């Protein structure tokens, strides 16, 4: 493709992209294809000859778009948002055009230094501690995801806890421990597995009524493990848990970790970027205690995936765990120690120029534009929570200081609440206008409404609330009708049973009457044979026996 062809076809692709942004609200939020539908629409073999962009765009519409769940749809309330925006797309386009490989400073100095600078900007924008800047003992880097960031934080913590021994000889089985709560993201347990600690090394700390980690319980578990010979390595505190948006108390957890020499990692993947608004920073009060911190610009800050902001106050532990320098990567800049080689801050060797899209977003919106973006969604969530709290059909079942609201529908007595709530969720999602998910709180199913899509406005949240009430009412009426039918059937069966019992009782009574009547009837006289005796014969003496013969006489 020549530059001129790229120009011409690039315009066509950008036109398609702009049209898609404009029409996304008209599409069903969740894909309606069945498993295998997309593959069955594709040819069995790759094309032998090249095809034009027009053919590719036609199949994009025919095959790909119907198989998408539209995360940028204004009715997308599932999981957490995955924002993108025009400036982010353009920044990604430029990054793709440049095609640089930013593994080392020397491979593209601008790729490294722009990223360092943008990450230092975010320290200020989010109110993070000065130790996270590149001018201090720490620094920031753009990771692929908070899952990856959690893993590198654990590796850095292992390096520090063992004095680098794990780099040389690996992890001693069963010796070290990691601490989470029941609300911590599963990626932390996965990190423990990948790092060689295993699931058994993960300790689950109890939570309070707001689903936040209990500092006293953490201290107790740490001390207990130390007394039993374990080495606590890392505590993962969460700012805005995935399930309910709960906030662990950093200000109380920090001293517990410091006093015991344990690395405190803060996973603020979703909620951390809300700190661009100063009035929301209290939610992560105590962040200055953190040894490392992660938050995702690609969730709620108008930047396309992947763009995780990862900071550490101890870059020596991070690079000590991850740095390795084969001869073919040696160069004067690296040897001088005057530059950052971001390959030593991540799992992979290679890396894209991800800071460009962050730079485009920051330059286009400015800090105030990002604040307004976050504030608008928080305000919409508070409105939804207010409507639900005032309605006798729903309960708001968890604190909701940001843009996640958990709702528990109320159902009539006798209705299986979990089944009813999941049925309501399925009806909402199947309708195509909205997409939301569920979680469990205290063992009960609740609905998660996560507001954060860039196009979501008040009218969309009002429509969601309308759909919630309409579908709840329809289901409640359906359940009531089914209950009434069951009651009627039960009454009918009871009546039939009573009728059968009455019939059986009548039959028993009749049988008893028949038996009694039979007993009262006269019995027939039994006939006997009568022998008549002649009176004269009766008066005659009995015949005398004849005389016996004399001895020796012959018989007659």
Automatic annotation (TrEMBL):
One GO term (biological process): amino acid metabolic process
SUPFAM superfamilies from the UniProt entry: PLP-dependent transferases
Residue(s) carrying N6-(pyridoxal phosphate)lysine: 299
Gene Ontology cellular component annotations, sorted alphabetically: cytoplasm
Bias type Low complexity, positions: 535-556
Gene3D superfamilies assigned to the protein according to its UniProt record, in alphabetical order: Aspartate Aminotransferase, domain 1 (3.90.1150.10), dopa decarboxylase, N-terminal domain (1.20.1340.10), Type I PLP-dependent aspartate aminotransferase-like (Major domain) (3.40.640.10)
Pfam families with a match to the protein in the record: Pyridoxal_deC (PF00282)
Cofactor(s) recorded in Swiss-Prot or TrEMBL: pyridoxal 5'-phosphate
Family membership noted in the UniProt record: Belongs to the group II decarboxylase family.
Name of the featured protein: Aromatic-L-amino-acid decarboxylase
